[in-house]
Amino acid sequence: MPIVNMKHMLQHAYDNRYAVGAFDLVSLDFLEGIMKAAEHCQSPVILSLAESHFDHFDFDLMMPAVEAAAKRAQVPVAIHLDHGASLSSAIHAINQGCNGVMVDASHAPLPDNIRLTREIVEMAHGCGVAVEGELGYVPGVEGEDAERHPGAISYTSVEDAKHYVTETGIDFLAVSIGTVHGRMRGEPRLDLDRLEQINKALGIPLVIHGGTGLSDEQFGHLIANGVCKINYYTALADAAGARITDNAMQGQAGYTALTDGTSDAIAREVERCMRLWGSAGAADAVLAASEPWLPVEHLIIYNVQGLDEDETRAMMAEGRRVLGSIPGVREVITGKAVKDDADYRYAWVMHFCHEAVIDSFRNHPDHVAFADNLFRPVAAGRISIDYQSLK
Ligand code: 13P
C-alpha cells in the first residue's frame, strides 16, 4: 500500500534536488493517466484535488477511486487537497482520505493568513497530515487563459516568509515569484533571486503553482532553488482536450469514442514532466525514506447499564454524529453482538486516518463531552484497543 507520508516524500525530493508533480485530476481518465505515467517511469507522485474543480466532479465519489489507485500502486503516492477554501474543507478532505492539505488564504492580509493557516496546521498535524501554506498571490485560474483573470501578482517577500513559516508551523511553502495559473502567451518572467533568498532563509520544501507554460530551463532553475513540488493541471487538460478534438475531427461521436485515448494523452504529458523534473526513477528511494501512511482502528467493546435498547441506540446515533466529524475520524461504526449471550454486547469501531489521531481524538472537546456525559456513565464494563492491520 504505497500511500506514504507526504512530508517524508517531499523531504526526500528537497534533499536530492528534484521535484514531485502534484497533478490536479478531474476525472478517472486523469487518475488513470497520472498513475500510468508514474508506474511507467517509477516516479513518486502527488494526486491533487483542487476545491475549485469540485463543481466538475463529486469529491466524495472520486476519493474512493483515488485511494484505490494509490493503494494498488507500486510507486509512492500522496493525496492532496489543493486550494482548499476553509478549515472545514480541510477537515472534510482529511476525513475522506487526503494526507496533505493546502488551504489558500494567500489573498488575505498577512495576519489573517497566519491565523487561518495556524488553525489548519494545528488540526492537520493532530491527524499526522502535512500542510502547505501560500504567501503572496499567484493569479490566474487553472485550465483557463491567464489573460481572462489578470489579477496582479503579489510576490512573496523573504521577511514575510520567515515570519509566516515560524508563526504557522507549515511543512511546505507555496511561493509567488512570477508564475501564473492557467494558459499563458509566452513564458512568465521568474524572480529567481527572490526564490534563492527564500530557500536560503527557510530551508523547507518549496512549492510552485502554475506549472503549465514554464520552459525546461525554468523548471531546472526552480528545482535548483528548493522547489520540490510542482502543481500542474492546464497542460494535462489541454492534452486531453486535443485528443477529444482529434477524435471528433475523425468523425467519432458518443462519449466513449470521443474520450478514447485521453488517459494516454495525459500520461504522456505527465511522464514528460516526471523525467524533466527528476522524479522518474526515484520511487524505490522514496519508499525506503518514507513512513507508510497507515490507518488505525479504534475498537471498543462494551456493555451498557441503565439504558434500555432504544436509549442505547440513541446514544450510539449521537456518537456517530458527533465523533464522525472530528478531524481524522474517517468512519464510525456502531455494532451489537449477534449472540445475546456474548460477554460484550456492543461495539464501536472507528477508523482513524493515522496514529496521531489517537491523541487528538481523545483530547478533542466533542469527544470529551460525549464520552464524559453520554458514554462512560453507562458503559462501565469495556475494553478498548487501537490497532493497525498487520499484513
Ligand atoms: P497550471 O494549471 O497553470 O498548471 O497550475 C496548476 C496549479 O497551480 C494548481 O494548483
Write the layout of secondary structure elements.
Elements: H1 6-16, E1 20-24, H2 28-40, E2 45-50, H3 59-71, E3 77-84, H4 87-96, E4 100-103, H5 110-125, E5 130-135, E6 140-145, H6 158-168, E7 172-175, E8 181-183, H7 192-202, E9 206-208, H8 216-224, E10 227-232, H9 234-249, H10 255-259, H11 262-277, H12 283-289, E11 296-302, H13 309-323, E12 329-336, E13 346-352, H14 356-363, H15 365-375, E14 382-387
Helix pairs in contact: 1-12, 2-3, 2-11, 4-5, 5-6, 6-7, 9-11, 13-15
Bound molecules: 1,3-dihydroxyacetonephosphate (13P).
- Biggest sheet layout: 8 strands, parallel, barrel
Overall number of structural domains: 2
Indicate the proportion of strand residues: 15-25%
| Amino- and carboxy-terminal Cα gap | 10 Å
Bound molecules: 1,3-dihydroxyacetonephosphate
Walk me through the structure:
Helix 1 (6-16) crosses helix 12, helix 6 runs parallel beside helix 7 (192-202) and helix 13 (309-323) packs antiparallel against helix 15 (365-375). It contains 15 helices and 14 strands. Helix 5 (110-125) links the parallel strand 4 (100-103) and strand 5. Helix content is 44%, strand content 20%. By secondary structure, it is of the alpha/beta class. The chain has an eight-stranded parallel β-barrel, surrounded by nine helices. A four-stranded antiparallel beta sheet has the order 12-13-11-14. It is globular. The protein has two domains: 6-289, TIM Barrel; 296-387, Alpha-Beta Plaits (2-Layer Sandwich), CATH 3.30.70. It binds 1,3-dihydroxyacetonephosphate. The site of 1,3-dihydroxyacetonephosphate has 16 residues, from strand 3, strand 6, strand 8 and strand 10.
